[in-house]
Amino acid sequence: MRWVLLVVCACHPASATTEPSPFDLPRYAGVTRCGPAAPPPLERPAPPMPAREPMMYTVPPRIDVEGGLTADTVSREVQAHAPMFRRCFLQLRARDEHAGGFRVHLGFAILENGTVAGIEVHGVDPTMNECLCDEATRLRFAPSERSIVSYPLEFGG
Asked: What does CATH list as the number for 31-39+61-155?
């Protein structure tokens, strides 16, 4: 007597709606936010954008300040904290000796009482961004009208 074994297999394609694993980490988008939330934007019309020629040379970083304080006032306070911001870069260099020079954009609101809120750091390393965010919470300005700031920080060497 002969026995015949018949095996039937059915394969189904993977479901299009797969559940994300709780161990899947989101990809770092290059932005770190910290500090208290900034109040809603200033209620005034945006000025028209000037026509810009393509830049063919390097110019000093441009500090954009909208509101009650001047760029010089903001720059003096940020420069007074430069050693703390540099410490963040040196910590990155200690972890990655090949970290070269780069620019990080620091954005924040200055409230009427002189404290900062709504801090955003657009950079290349999440740990360095968190360090810069923590240092930016220590910035203090003279009380004045609320201001919105975009400040480039350059690191290198």
From this structure: 3.30.2420
Q: How far apart are CA 98 and CA 87, in angstroms?
A: 16
6-55: per-residue pLDDT in tens?
555 455 455 555 555 454 545 666 677 777 777 776 666 555 555 443 33
Residue type, 99: A
User: Using CA atoms, how far apart are residues 155 and 129, in angstroms rounded to an integer?
Assistant: 13
DSSP 8-state code for residue 72: H
Using CA atoms, how far residue 40 sits from 18, 44, 119, 141, 146, in Å, is: 38, 12, 14, 20, 11
Distance (Å, rounded) from C-alpha 84 to C-alpha 92?
A: 13
Q: Which residue has the tokens 């720059």?
A: 75
Tell me the residue type at 85.
F
User: Could you report the per-residue pLDDT of 78-89, keeping only the tens digit for each?
Assistant: 999 999 998 998
Burial class (CB in 10 A: 0-12, 13-18, 19+), 151: buried
Between strands 102-110 and 64-67, the pairing is unpaired
Contact of 137 with 84, CB cutoff 8 Å = no
- Pick from 41, 25, 42, 29: nearest CA to 121: 29
From CA 75, how far away is CA 110, in angstroms rounded? 13
